[in-house]
């Protein structure tokens, strides 16, 4: 892993016990409970560290997740909606997190808004699957991606803060 | 991976191919569930790129064209499919393509008896039974590919930021690969979880979802 802070944040997230994917009718509900537990714990840790940066929730059977993530840059908060499906081969394959509103604005993104993660992510996930869960995906995948991409996009003028968007629309 | 899982469940023979993002290498692979390595049997294989750093103007970016390499690999893939279906020539189990030096390593990787995919392991059992029942046939052709052993020496690593000792501990089983092919990464064998696990909870899924929403 590249970042000490990331490594520390991830090591505090509890690992998951049940290796089950969405097709395991018997064990998936248990896995889903563990996912929620780990996510709740992670968000609480973030709040305690004054670094609360995302929310997630799922549909009833936990196969589709949506939420928001935000990033503070120069005292302004930029919010984005995010979404992903749980792949058939989860937890061996990680879900592909997508931020549809940024589609087309950065090279680090596949069509449809799926974020492109660095080479570090895949081996890390493979080594730790199935103990890694969605909380780890957030911490290791989306978090670092936002940290790198959002300032860059703001700098290039591709992402405007909502207030400025409203002002521009009013003019 | 999803296709791999499906084919393992159905016992479907299939071929897959891939091209590296920097367009300097690619490969095709024939997968027979139970007999040859499935997609999950080993970490992704990397055909050595042999990029001469001095020819790169930008960091790690080579001038190679992705559609061109894809075209080459697509042609090789279709060729292999035709050979399989129409029964001519020798069907390659694995053919790598190193575009920088026009090097085509080939090999035959057997299935991993400890593959993560349950159906791969089931297929392997079925395959062993079929092989045992089949009468012995004289094998005439010379095997060009190297024989693969499970108990082994630790494969060749491309880039390593850790010491050799740490690397050996972290490597786990690595297939014995011919020159020019390595694994993209290794998976350590030890099962010990290095962190806290989620605890047992009395709360139901609905309660957890509600708790999440209130955060």
> If helices are DSSP runs of H or I spanning 4 or more residues, what is the number of helices of chain B?
5
Please give the largest β-sheet of chain B: 4 strands, antiparallel
**Known CATH architecture of the domain at 2-133 in chain B:** 3-Layer(aba) Sandwich
Cα-based radius of gyration of chain B, to the nearest Å? 21 Å
Spatial ordering of strands, largest sheet of chain A:
1-2-3
Mean pLDDT of chain A: 89
* CATH homologous superfamily identity of the domain at 2-133 in chain B: NAD(P)-binding Rossmann-like Domain
| First-last Cα distance of chain B | 35 Å
First and last CA, distance of chain A: 46 Å
Placed side by side, the strands forming the largest sheet of chain B appear as 1-2-4-5
What portion of residues of chain B belong to β-strands? 5-15%
Structural class of chain A: alpha+beta
SS elements, strand count of chain A = 3
Instruction: Give the SSE order of chain A as H and E letters.
Output: HHEEEHHH
Shape by Cα distribution of chain A: globular
Structure classification of chain B: alpha+beta
Q: Write down how many β-strands of chain B occur, each being a DSSP E stretch of 2 or more residues.
A: 6
- Our Rg estimate of chain A from Cα atoms comes to 17 Å
Largest interface: A-B, 33 and 29 residues
Poorly predicted runs of 5 or more residues of chain A:
none
Order of helices and strands of chain B: HEEEHEEHHEH
GO molecular function, one term (chain B): ubiquitin-like modifier activating enzyme activity
Domain THIF-type NAD/FAD binding fold (chain B): 2-116
Protein name (chain B): THIF-type NAD/FAD binding fold domain-containing protein
GO molecular function, one term (chain A): UFM1 conjugating enzyme activity
